[in-house]
Structures are given as C-alpha cells and as structure tokens.
Amino acid sequence: MKAAQINGVAVLTNAKGLTLYWFAPDTSTMSRCTGDCATYWPPVYGQPKAGSGVTGTLGTITRPDGTTQATYDGHPLYTYIGDSKPGQASGNNIDLNGGFWYEVKVSG
Fold first, then answer.
1. For residues 70 and 56, what is the distance between their CA atoms, to the nearest angstrom?
2. Distances (CA, A) of 85 to 76, 88, 90, 100, 108
3. 18-77, pLDDT tens digit by residue?
4. 10 near 19, Cβ under 8 Å?
5. Angstrom distance (rounded) from CA 21 to CA 102
6. Could you tell me where the DSSP H helices lie in 34-94?
7. Alpha carbons 75 and 57: distance in angstroms, whole number
8. pTM
C-alpha cells in the first residue's frame, strides 16, 4: 500500500496504484460487504504492508467467510471494479450495496 494524490487528495492505493475504499456500514471488526457486494468491491486480502507515504495503522480482520482482510485505521479495505487504472476514484462518495463508499484518505 502506498499514498498517492488523486484529484488533489492524498489517498491510499494498493501496490498497483488503484484507489482503496472503506464502506460506511463496516465496523473495525466486521465487513458488511459480502456476496454480490464483494464482486463490485473486491476486499483487499492478507496482511497489509506500508509503502511510501502510509502513516496510518495497518491491521486485519477475519471476514465472515474466514479469509483475512486488510484494514487501515480500523476500516476494512476494498478496491472498486469501476476503477481500471491508477488515478481513478470513481467509487468515492457513492451509495451502493447498502451504504456509502469513500476513498481512504491518508492520515497524518
């Protein structure tokens, strides 16, 4: 994970430069995006590693299916199928799959 400027905002991206998102209905210990939701918003699996500009707290949760999902500052992380290349944040501030989605702003 690394920090990148997208539309003038410092956001968290994955290693490929795709914007990472958090889902408002989630909690720090539970993902509420499962089934069809996770098709549109693929979870970020595994233990996250901090790259350039990442200053927040990285961690993990166990998803309802038993897999490990990465978190940042207590938010489970996702990508969005509507973003096809670095520099896009088409999933930001939209109400889809039962709640609002937001790009993950880099803390600090």
1. 13
2. 21, 6, 11, 22, 26
3. 999 999 999 999 999 999 999 999 999 999 999 989 989 999 999 999 999 999 999 999
4. no
5. 5
6. 36-40
7. 10
8. 0.95
